[in-house]
Amino acid sequence: MRLKSAIWVAAYVRRCHLEGAFAAVRRRGAEEAGAIFVKLNRLDGTAELFGPAPQSVFEDARPADRAFSRCLGERPAPEAKIEERIARELRFDPDAWIVEVEDRAGRHFLDQIVA
Predict the structure, then answer these.
(1) Which of 27, 50, 93, 94 lies most in the core, judged by the most C-beta atoms within 10 Å?
(2) What is the pLDDT of residues 56-76, one digit of tens each?
(3) Contact at 8 Å (CB) between 79 and 45?
(4) Nearest to 70, CA basis, from 101, 110, 102, 105
C-alpha cells in the first residue's frame, strides 16, 4: 500500500531539511493520491523537474514505492522553462503537489529515479 501524498511530501521535506537543503511545499495537491512534482532549484538560474514515473516502469499494477523521472532531460534547464512546464502540468492536473528544493550541489534526495 502506498503512502498518502500528504504524508510522503511531509517526510520528503523533512528529509531535505535534515540533509541541509531548503525545501518547501509550493502547492498542496490532493491529500490522498495527488501526483507529486519536485523542482530542484540549483540557485544559479537553472533547475530540474522530477515527476511521477510512467506506470509502465513498474512490475506491479499498484506499486508501493514512488518512482520519479526527469521531466525535461538529464541536464538542468533554465528556471523559466521549468516554471512553464509546472504551469502546464497544473493545467492538466490541478490536484498535483509542487515541492521546491534549493540545493547548489544539485542533490534531489529522491530514492528512485527511472527513465
Answers:
(1) 50
(2) 655 655 555 788 999 998 999
(3) yes
(4) 110
Question: Measured between alpha carbons, how far is 55 from 75 in angstroms, rounded to an integer?
Answer: 23
Residue-level pLDDT at 105: 96
Of 35 and 54, more confident: 35
Instruction: Tell whether 109 is covered by a domain.
Output: no
Q: Domain with 58 in it: what CATH number?
A: 3.40.1530.20
DSSP 22-87: EEEEEE---TTT--EEEEEE-SSSEEEEEEEPPGGG-SSSS-SS--EEESS-SS-EEHHHHHHHHH
Q: Which helix (H) or strand (E) holds 102?
A: strand 97-102
Q: Report the C-alpha gap between 97 and 78 in whole angstroms.
A: 21
Q: Is 19 helix (H, G, I), strand (E, B) or coil?
A: coil
Question: Which helix (H) or strand (E) segment is 21 a member of?
Answer: none
Task: Let me know if residue 90 belongs to a domain.
Answer: yes
Mean pLDDT, the chain, integer: 90
